[in-house]
Amino acid sequence: MQALFDDYVAAAGLATELVNTAPGVWHGEDQLPDTAALAAFLAEHGVALRVGADDLAAVHDVRARLRSVLDERDADAIAAGAAALVARGIGTVGLEADERGRQQWCAQPRPDAALAGRLALLAGVGVLGALRALGPERFRDCASDTCSGVFIDTSRPGRRRYCMPDLCGNRANVAAYRARQRSRGTP
Ligand SMILES: [Zn+2]
């Protein structure tokens, strides 16, 4: 599993979704409570890595560190935090051809890096790529009042508002709808 510095969108998306599995975002309920849930999460995100019994706690640790990076709003602080994550898993950096044959800077994990180190590398490269291409203002808190999630907005227009658009966007819509109904005096 390699990570391309120029192709940050998928890795930044993985970083966002990983931090938003944390119990703090789900009123105490961890969305990665066991190795089966972690394996399903990785498969969903196209990360072909086997999950061992020792990996879960280490991934939770990476997730917490990644959250503190996504909580930063200062470019230097984001870059420093992401670089520390990358350092956990990195083996080599070099130019390699991507699937279209273009030469791209590519990070390869250490051959002996465990799952959490490889995930940290991938997420860290996603954060660094997004920071460089889009800037620190794309690191945001979820706009839903009832959600403590965070996200990196890699959309072209840059107007994303929610950490989990399907869920938090709808929650906010439902809340606004109910508030309008209440103000009209209907149940
Ligand atoms: Zn949210």
TrEMBL record:
Q: InterPro entries in the record, alphabetically?
A: ABATE (IPR010852), ABATE_dom_sf (IPR023286), Znf_CGNR (IPR021005)
Coiled-coil region(s) at which residues?
A: none
Q: Which residues form the Zinc finger CGNR domain?
A: 138-181
Q: Where is the signal peptide?
A: none
Q: State the superkingdom.
A: Bacteria
Q: What is this protein called?
A: CGNR zinc finger domain-containing protein
Source organism of the structure: Actinomycetospora straminea
